[in-house]
Each structure stands twice: as structure tokens, then as C-alpha cells.
Amino acid sequence: MAEEGQQHPLKIYYMIWTLLFVVSFFSYMVDYLQFQGYLRWTLILVFMFVKAGFIIAIFMHMKWERLAFKLAILGPPVAILVLIGLMSLEGNYVEGSRIESYGESTFEPETPGHH
Amino acid sequence: MSEAVLDSGAQEAQGGQGVVDDWSRDKQVFGLPWGKAMMWIFLLSDTFIFSCFLVGYMMVRISTTDPWPVPSEVFALTIFGESIPLVLIAIMTFILITSSGTMALAVNMGYRKDRKKTFWLMVSTAALGASFVGMQAFEWTKLISEGVRPWANPFGAAQFGSSFFMITGFHGLHVSAGVIYLLVIAFRVKNGFYEKRGGNYEIVEITGLYWHFVDLVWVFIFAFFYLW
Q: Cβ contact (<8 Å) for B216 and A65?
């Protein structure tokens, strides 16, 4: 199998390619239609994981690799979730102590594109 | 005789038993060409680098008390007198996806030993990548002219500029390196370099892995930096 490399029918590539376009269009629409709050964040994450999944599984051929290899490559990034969790806790704490020590921000932002 | 039987057994076991077999049999763990395994391991390390950038961005965005600039407005472009949010970023996203598709086809044509098609598909991929970097240069120029700096910007929290230049800059560097890498391999495919080495076109797949990874990173940057 390894000698032959990854040979698959072209059809699956065209299909995934089209799907990637469609999903990207949807994720742009999330911004264009100005969805806000939890709906926005959920949609962004769903579309992101769908796209990432298609690219890794089909374009990078991970779907057809052996499980030992899948685990070796896709396992370690799970550790990043721990970092995300710790840093969001830390970030919220830092923000709280900044407001406590220095008060709320007095920054007056300009609106982009008007000058 | 019995060894041969064991070996064919190792090829067939799937799932959990396959994992145990792969790690415990007296053989190479991953039945992959070393170049491909090494590219994956490099990409794994790169995943951690980009994750650190994105987590750092998350941390500064949470912890700043200044308002975060609205990406939808900062990256809007005025086309024919109408302001369209995030339009250039959307175009860049579609370009990168297009290039991922041409790359996937190049890998396939490589294994079919169709050197001409492989060459042209890889060159188109590189051209799309180069246009992506060009648009990013345009985006940088626009933001810099509006006063966005790594240490301050008129639209909100100073950390916006530092995260933007760091993350997109590092990604752009990856795309630029990828364009060079693609062109080198494409011309080697064209002039028959791999024919002299037994006609093995695994290298096209390895190059493809790198290129798809660059696209993959953009998926995350697009979601977290531009859309969030």
C-alpha cells in the first residue's frame, strides 16, 4: 500500500473542493449578515471545524492512514485545549484586576474608514 | 514462512489491534515513506507555533480593557462607492481554497505520473499563493497608512496591531516559503529529476501536505481573528 501512495478517484477531490467553497461562503455570510453573540460564535466554530476536517481528512489523506499514525499526529494538539482553558481563566483575571486597579478604559476609538 | 504470515497479519489488523500491532511488532511503526512522516511531524510542531500565537491573541483580547477594533469594519473595502465588510479577506480565503484544490489534483496527477499536468497544477497553485501574498501586502499597506502599528492603533486596543502583524505576518511567511517550495518541486517534476530516481512522485504529496497545512492555518486565522 505504501509503495503505491495515496491514489483516489478525482471525484472525491472535486466534491470536497466544492464543499469547501460552500462552507467558506457560509462563514463569510456570518459576518455579512451580522449575526452576533452565541449564534455567531457557534456558527464560526462549526464552519471552521467542518473546513479543517475536510482538509485534513481528504486533501491531506489522513482518512486513509493507519490509526497508529492518526493518533500520533492528531493526539498531541489536544493539549492545546488545556492551554486555551488556562489562558482564558488567566485573561479574565487580568482584565478584572486591571479594571480594579486602573478603572474602566477611557479610550475613544475612531471609526475605521472615516478620515 | 511463519514470519511472512505474521507480516501479512500486521498489514491487515485495523483499529485498536492495528495500533498495538504497529507499535509492538519488530518493524517501523508507521508504514510510511520517511519524507511524508517527517513532513507530518514538522506540521505538528508548526501547529503548536500557530496555536501559541492564536492563544496569545485570545489572552490579550480577553485581558485588555480597551474596546477591541471591529474586524468587519477595519477590513472593509470601499468598492464602487459601497463599503463591503471583510471583502478582501473573503477573496483571499477563496483564493487559498482554490489553490488547495489545484494542489490536491497535482498530487493525484503526480501519482498517475502525468508530469505535464502535475507541473501546471503546481505552478497554478504557486501563482494563487503569490497573489494571496500580494493581497496581504495590500492589506498591510492599507492598515499601516491608517495608523495601525504593533504598539497602537486609532480603532481600539493596541494589542490588535501586534496580534495582526504577528499572526498574518507569520502565516504570509509560510505562504511565501510554500510558493518557493512549490516552484522548486514543480520544475524538478517537469525536467525529469524524479524519473532518474525511479519515478517516485511521493514528493508531490509531501509538498501538498505543507500547502494544505498553510490553508488549514488560514481557516483558523479567518475564524478567530477576522470573524470572531
A: no
